[in-house]
Amino acid sequence: MDKAEAQAILAEQLARFGSYVELLPLVAAQRGETWQVRGARGADYQIEIQCFWDDYAGGDIRVLGSIDAGGWRAFLPLTKDVLVSRPKGLASAAKPKKNSKIPARKVPSSPAAASAPARLSR
After folding, report:
1. pTM for this model (two decimals)
2. pLDDT at position 106
């Protein structure tokens, strides 16, 4: 796989996903899109694009793209992501309070206490 060609193709394909409003159905579907393209040098590449909320629902959208030429490279594809900000004119989404529903975690007082097995009472 020619890395320079693959990166150029992926950047070109990611540029198609720049409109926030057009990305909303892809985020709602919660599934990626996959297709094949042929590079200028004749190599076949598989591209996968996934769209999801970056921080909270209704906020910015992260678009993650990956490209590979099959073979072992399919297990370690080249990736690139872009962040598409929510336009100012859109109805605002209420940002949730950070850690509002996550209970405090009890931290052991010593490393030994963390690794010690729980004792059963008789």
Report:
1. 0.69
2. 52
